[in-house]
Amino acid sequence: MKTVMIFGTFDIVHFGHIHMFEEAKAYGDRLVVVVARDANAEKIKGMAPFHSEKERKGLLTYISLADEVVLGDKNDPYKIISHIKPDIIALGYDQKVFVDKLVHAISDFKLEIRIVRLSAWKPEKFKTSKIRRYIEKVT
After folding, report:
1. Using CA of residue 51, residue 56, residue 62, residue 63, what is the dihedral sign?
2. Active-site residue 43, yes or no?
3. Rounded to the nearest 10 degrees, how much is the dihedral formed by the CA atoms of 104, 109, 113, 116?
4. pLDDT at 15
5. How far is the C-alpha of 46 from the C-alpha of 38, rounded, in Å?
6. What is the pLDDT of residues 37-62, one digit of tens each?
7. Which residues, given as ranges, of the chain have pLDDT below 70?
8. What is the pLDDT of residue 112?
């Protein structure tokens, strides 16, 4: 059984995320979704998420494409990789954070993990930052 792992904040889940889950799931049999912790999400994005990590994790459990939804580690973003030991890590088309040291972390864990980059799906419409700006503008 091949396990695929994806990472994200998943604050405002939209069709772009669903496409990401579908594409990632096609690489294996089991999809593990890692949800960013609140403090890490705020540090990365420069603002707090709309929804708490508990809410974001809870919502994703309702998406049948995700076989398991877990919270990332508060201090070490790579630690969950050593715990789950996925066969494949699927990165979002625009994912840049923690990518630069990913290969090194995998090597340190002495794991053999394939890294794939997922494609975009209508990013001009389905991108969290654009949706968030729209929500903030109309509220």
Report:
1. positive
2. yes
3. -40
4. 87
5. 11
6. 999 989 888 888 889 999 999 999 99
7. 122-136, 138-139
8. 96
d(CA 3, CA 22): 14
Could you give the CA distance from residue 35 to residue 47 in angstroms, rounded to a whole number?
A: 16
Beta bridge partners of 8: 35
What's the chain's length in residues? 139
Is-catalytic flag, 137?
no
Q: Which of 2, 25, 45, 137 is catalytic?
A: 45
Which is the catalytic residue, given 43, 74, 101, 125? Answer: 43
Reduced to 3 states, what is the DSSP secondary structure of residue 27? Answer: coil
Burial 75-105 (b: 16+ CB within 10 A, else e): eebbebbeeeebbbbbbbeebeebeeebeeb
Residue type at position 139: T
Q: What Cα–Cα distance (Å) separates residue 99 from each residue in 15, 33, 59, 78?
A: 23, 16, 25, 10
The answer to whether 117 and 91 have CB atoms below 8 angstroms apart is: yes
Q: What domains are there in the chain, each with its CATH number?
A: 3-138 (3.40.50.620)
Both tokens of 78, joined, read: 């790579």
